[in-house]
Amino acid sequence: MKIVGITCGVDKKKTYLNRDYIATITNLGFVPLMISPDMTEKILSNINKISALVISGGGDINPNFYGEKNIACKNLVPDERVLSEMQLLKEFIKTEKPILGICYGMQLMNIFLGGSLYQNIESNIKHQSCNHEVQVTDDFLFKKGQYTVNSSHHQAIKILGKGLQIFCTASDKVIEGVYLKDHPFFVGVQWHPERHNGEISLSLWKSFAKKIK
Fold first, then answer.
1. What is the largest CA-CA distance in the chain?
2. 18 in helix, strand or coil?
3. Which of 8, 154, 176, 194 is catalytic?
4. Rounded to the nearest 5°, which phi and psi values hold at 125?
5. Could you give the CA distance from residue 57 to residue 103 in angstroms, rounded to a whole number?
6. Closest Cα partner for 198 from 156, 155, 145?
């Protein structure tokens, strides 16, 4: 059985992860392993045993990580989680194993590669809680065209990280999907495919699973 690591949220007393992630990875035929910041060193020393990595959703990344002052972030992710996931990305990217970032996870990938975020987007689309259409403009994963996704975020990519390519946007130009050129599978999506049964989400998980060796 192949193991897929999934990062999780933390506070002073608890670690937590929505069960949708566990169910999705299990249904794909893999063993999910929840990774908390306390486990980082152990995971990195056993990285050969982990077949893929998922950076799960979360709150707001402290703007200090991309050189800005905080003007709109209220639900800050603890720095220990951000730093842990940065370490994981640094080492996993070298292995060329599949890496999938979801919502906060995509934003973290972007910052890891030197990009930045809009701290709070203003749009006619209610990105914080709605379903909306996205346009796939690069067919490296999906056929070009329009798809429906779910949405639960108030931030978005502003300056794109080094090497990232956009494959999907909303009608208001908010970036909904990116990938790293010349990597087998380094993909970030702004929606939550673990709790969405639409065509694009199901296709994403199938593509992710196919890359796991």
1. 46
2. coil
3. 194
4. -90, 130
5. 5
6. 145
- 134: which strand partners? 147, 170
Question: Rounded to an integer, what distance in angstroms lies between the CA atom of residue 31 and that of residue 2?
Answer: 6
- Dihedral over Cα of 112, 117, 120, 126: its sign: negative
Q: How far is CA 19 from CA 2, 6, 119, 134, 198, in A?
A: 19, 11, 28, 26, 19
| CA–CA gap between residue 59 and residue 51 (Å, rounded) | 26
Q: Token pair of 213, please? A: 């060796």
C-alpha to C-alpha distance for 11 and 150, rounded to whole angstroms: 26
Let me know if 103 is a catalytic residue. Answer: yes
For the chain, which ranges sit under pLDDT 50?
A: none
Measured CA angle at 126 (ends 120, 132), to 5 deg: 125
Measured CA distances, 159 to 3, 64, 119, 176 (Å): 33, 15, 12, 14
- One DSSP character per residue, 106-136 reads HHHHHHHTT--EESS---SS-TTSEEEEEEE
Domains in the chain with CATH codes: 3-210 (3.40.50.880)
Helices and strands in the chain, H and E counts? 5, 13
> Annotated catalytic, 194?
yes
- The mean of the pLDDT values for the chain is 96
Query: Which candidate in 103, 132, 153, 168 is catalytic?
Result: 103
Using alpha carbons only, give the angle 136, 138, 139 rounded to the nearest 5 degrees. Answer: 95
Look at residue 124 in the predicted model and tell me its pLDDT: 87
**With a threshold of 0.90, does the pTM exceed it?**
yes
